[in-house]
Here is the input.
Amino acid sequence: MGRKKISIIGAGFVGATAAHWAAEKELGDVVLMDILEGIPQGKALDLFEASPIEGFDARVVGTKGYEETKDSDVVIVTSGVPRKPGMSREDLLDINKKIIESVVSQVAEKSPKAILIMVTNPLDTMTYLAYKKSGFPKERVIGMAGILDTARFRAFIALELGVSVEDIQTLLLGGHGDEMVPLPRYTTVSGIPLSQLLPKETIDRLVDRTRKGGGEIVNLLKTGSAFYAPSAGAVQMAEAILKDKKRILPCCVYLDGEYGLKDICFGVPIKLGTKGVESIIELQLTQEEKALLTKSAESVKKSIAELKL
Ligand code: APR
Here is the structure.
């Protein structure tokens, strides 16, 4: 039995950091691909040279072409332009559309059995584009957003309470924009409902910070967007798939009637395993949560319409 193969398209901040997490976790051999000459090869070689020190066995190869990505088990797509201060994720649509169209068709041709994990923004729209362009079944095209957004919410709750991040469990629905729908009602700290530990005003403040969490990092970095947490999220998905962990995680998937939504890629809780999306879990929602979800879906639908597919 050979090792699994993970290809990462885009060797920028998110892609290179994803390669780092994936190799260190020994999820398989890693191929780092970019259109820039020297960057993917240099970063891959440097990372491989770290392996004797850190003690992980994973080949890491950098490349400018798709040949090395052939027959990947998982492909993480991070190619594209990140935001700068003052930009919304939607402002990236036109430029990233062209990049994703070209990348996904080549990935699909070389790795027809792969599971695609999309990271490029605007996330829901790029996941939809990848689903349409790849021709893959809907179970095998999944966007990474909910893990990042819930990680931010978990981190803020842990800071507020002064407790371990590990003990915070939460769920989130909707698009990866400022209208995402964090769910305090589905949030616990070691099983204790969040509402028993924090007053509503504090929870509202943390929800608001979560919604604007990406922008907070962009405003601090000024030259790009978040990369540690997004890449960790993508690699958590890769791990769930490659180890068939059947984790319940909020991910962006194609909906065909679930939550009353059709023909949209949208964030919902799924069971993630070796087949990709193994099931979609439909939560019971209050009227208020449903209204927030509808608003988020409307903005994602508008963005998808701009693809003019
Ligand atoms: N094929 C392969 N790689 C490409 C292509 C392409 N057609 N077009 C661009 N790239 C590469 C760039 O050369 C660059 O190295 O994608 C990389 C993007 O890296 P960064 O500019 O560092 O951006 P990053 O912070 O990694 O974000 C990438 O993820 O979170 C999202 O919003 C973010 O859409 C952005 C993406």
Summary: Residues 9-15, 34-36, 78-83, 92, 96, 99, 102-103, 119-121, 224-225, 227, 230 surround adenosine-5-diphosphoribose (CB under 6 Å). DSSP finds nine helices and 14 strands in the chain.
